[in-house]
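Lecture notes, continued. The same structure-token format from the folding unit now serves as the input rather than the output. Read the line below as a description of shape only.
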């Protein structure tokens, strides 16, 4: 279930099917063409902000959820701030939640259990991407953090063979067209760059077909993307609700006096 949760949070962020034409600006497009155009529009997005909502259950009926926000800047340099303020597993909250900031090739992690593992007294732990070396666990975590990418997320949905328009709805005071469908995970992952394929194929290896809903505005930008999946008796629903595009974002490293170093031989748990 934890693999599914990570995957859902990373990719939740549209195909080749046929349906009646739907409006996108001044142009009439099929559902498949509309989502293909959204993938093209995503190439030009330089920054965005989104709300994160994830709910899941395991085969035994235990439930959990994640709530948070995400800021991501593509240019002039890659930077992100993911703040999962509410995280719970089987009814037990994760104290303090999770926060990860990436700026200037350095990741800053804020997680109470990480403080206990590393023995630091600082609320934040710093990890330089160029200093990770052979620590496979840390490299995997940092690689996953960088996969939260609008272009890759939308590209996954273009593998759908059955996408259709299901109506017009308002999301965040913006009028949108609602599309729904499924995509084969194995085929969808092949549409991504090699580094993204490596990170996501393992996370989604137990999911065959992913259900999705996408709410696209008349500029061709996604206002909400929702994924629904199940595997090995576990289920999840993950959504990203986009609140801004191409605006100046404030993403900065935490104050230096609140940051500790990641010990070279710190224990790592899955």
């Amino acid at each position: 279930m934890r693999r599914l949760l990570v995957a859902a949070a990373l990719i939740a962020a549209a195909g080749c099917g046929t349906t009646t034409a739907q409006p996108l600006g001044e142009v009439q497009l099929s559902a498949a063409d509309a989502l293909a155009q959204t993938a093209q529009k995503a190439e030009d997005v330089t920054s965005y902000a989104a709300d994160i909502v994830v709910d899941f259950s395991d085969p035994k009926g235990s439930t959990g959820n994640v709530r948070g926000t995400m800021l991501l800047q593509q240019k002039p340099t890659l930077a992100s701030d993911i703040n999962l303020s509410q995280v719970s597993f089987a009814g037990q909250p994760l104290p303090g939640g999770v926060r990860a900031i990436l700026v200037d090739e350095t990741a800053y992690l804020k997680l109470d259990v990480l403080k206990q593992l590393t023995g630091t007294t600082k609320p934040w732990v710093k990890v330089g991407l160029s200093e990770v070396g052979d620590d496979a666990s840390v490299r995997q975590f940092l690689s996953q953090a960088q996969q939260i990418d609008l272009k890759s997320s939308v590209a996954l949905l273009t593998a759908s063979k059955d996408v259709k328009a299901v109506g017009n709805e308002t999301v965040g005071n913006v009028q949108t067209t609602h599309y729904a469908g499924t995509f084969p995970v194995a085929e969808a992952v092949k549409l991504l760059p090699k580094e993204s394929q490596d990170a996501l194929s393992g996370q989604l290896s137990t999911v065959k077909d992913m259900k999705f809903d996408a709410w696209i505005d008349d500029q061709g930008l996604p206002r909400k993307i929702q994924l629904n999946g199940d595997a090995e008796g576990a289920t999840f629903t993950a959504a990203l609700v986009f609140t801004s595009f191409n605006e100046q974002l404030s993403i900065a490293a935490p104050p230096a006096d609140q940051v500790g170093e990641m010990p070279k031989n710190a224990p790592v748990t899955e």
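Point for the exam: Residues 2-248 form a domain with the outer membrane lipoprotein receptor (LolB), chain A fold (CATH 2.50.20.20).
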